[in-house]
Amino acid sequence: MKLELISFKLCPFAQRAIILLNKQKLDFELNHINPINPPDWFKKISPTGQVPLLKADGRIIFESSVITEFVNDISKTNLHPTDPIQKAENRSWIQFSSTLFDDLFAVVTGNEGKFHTSKKSLFDKLAKVETVKNSAQFFNGDDFSIIDIAFAPIFMRLDWINEFTNSALLLDEFKHLSAWSKELLQLDVVKNSVAEGLGNAYYANIEAREGYLSTLLID
Ligand SMILES: N[C@@H](CCC(=O)N[C@@H](CS)C(=O)NCC(=O)O)C(=O)O
């Protein structure tokens, strides 16, 4: 099957698809667009105007959670739990994880007031995730699953922000999430899901947004 993933470099939702495609050892072509000024061909094929978008033998699949489900369906290894309740629970938390990006976006772009309210909202949500995570290596114990992939891009961005500031978004109060984040970020499949130097691009993005977070950057 011919797979083409349309993304842009800093997109955390597309990063989920990249991690899974690589983990499942599926060949795919990766093409980037500029989401601020997307080309006409993209506007024609994308109902939402958003990336990621996956072309599978020319047919259009969009929404990162649907793309990851599809990639898992066409792979030899199943990276979802087999128990239906556990699988549904995982899917619920995957959906929940996507809402963290709204808070993170506001943390990156907002003024001082917005930064603090969005950080609180983000941390209130992380506290809820902490209650369902235990001390196991991955979310489902020893097995690396799609839910781990869904959270990895958020942990990567929190890690960058902590490195670029005096730990503005430290996860230390969440014992299980801190350990889970460390575990995921040291995996090759996660490290290799972003281009070399993407952290610098993220730094530049924070600077360019000129939000309160940009004032916390360490040179
Ligand atoms: N619910 C979507 C969210 C995707 C999304 O927000 N993509 C961003 C880039 S990371 C985008 O395309 N933004 C451009 C826009 O919204 O016009 C998914 O999970 O795929």
Find the structural class using helix and strand composition: alpha+beta
- Overall CATH class of the largest domain: Mainly Alpha
Number of continuous helical runs: 9
Tell me what the CATH architecture of the largest domain is: Up-down Bundle
**H/E topology pattern:** EHEHEEHHHHHHH
The outline comes out as globular
Descriptive account of the structure:
By secondary structure, this protein is α+β, with helices and mostly antiparallel strands. It has two domains: 71 residues, Glutaredoxin, CATH 3.40.30.10; 133 residues, Glutathione S-transferase Yfyf (Class Pi), Chain A, domain 2 (Up-down Bundle), CATH 1.20.1050. The protein has nine helices and four strands; from the N terminus they run βαβαββααααααα. A four-stranded mixed beta sheet has the order 2-1-3-4, covered by helices on one side. Strand 1, helix 1 and strand 2 form a beta-alpha-beta unit. The longest helix is centred in the middle third of the chain and has 26 residues. The protein binds glutathione (GSH). Glutathione binds next to helix 1 and helix 3.
What does the secondary structure layout of this molecule look like, with pairings?
Elements: E1 3-7, H1 12-23, E2 29-32, H2 40-45, E3 53-56, E4 59-62, H3 64-73, H4 84-109, H5 112-132, H6 146-164, H7 175-185, H8 188-191, H9 198-209
Helix pairs in contact: 1-3, 1-6, 4-5, 4-6
The structure holds glutathione.
Glutathione is lined by residues 11-13, 35, 49-52, 63-65, 98.
